Amino acid sequence: MSRKMDGKPWQHDRQREWYLKNRELTLERTRKWAQENKERHTASKKAWAKNNKEKVAANARQATLKKKYGITPEIYEEMLEAQDGVCAICGNPPKQRRLHIDHCHKTNEVRALLCVTCNIKLGHLEGFKRLRLGIRAFERYLERFEDSQQDSL
Fold first, then answer.
1. Residue 113: which of 134, 137, 97 has the closest Cα?
2. Could you give the percent of the chain with pLDDT greater than 90?
3. Does the reported pTM lie above 0.85?
4. Using CB atoms within 10 A of its CB, is residue 152 exposed (0-12), middle (13-18) or buried (19+)?
5. What span, in angstroms and rounded, lies between the C-alpha atoms of 150 and 100?
6. How far apart are CA 145 and CA 5, in angstroms?
7. What whole-number distance in Å separates Cα of residue 3 and Cα of residue 5?
């Protein structure tokens, strides 16, 4: 695992080997230091985030994709490539930065990638489906009473 430069192993490789062997110990020490030095730790995190905005955004996106949809950025890119970079409904490329992830709200199963317009329309359509079911329940309710009122006439 260690690389050699002028016959000597790189310091980084030795540190990495030690870290891999002692990962839990290192993590525990880091947690303890962070708790004991909250202000320094917070300042350090803020400074890193300020200097690494792209990494912060990528990490946030990765966490959101994993938490909300159970996919990785690589899976998103595979889906995008499979759809030729266009919306699965209208076939248009995204007008904004990227296509939205359509998923079933009951099962959380990811269906496809949609443009913002189709995603909103699909959401309204699903709402109308529920509304139609609700209207049917009201109609059945009224029909029950219409039958009993006609019998009494």
1. 97
2. 54
3. no
4. exposed
5. 52
6. 90
7. 7
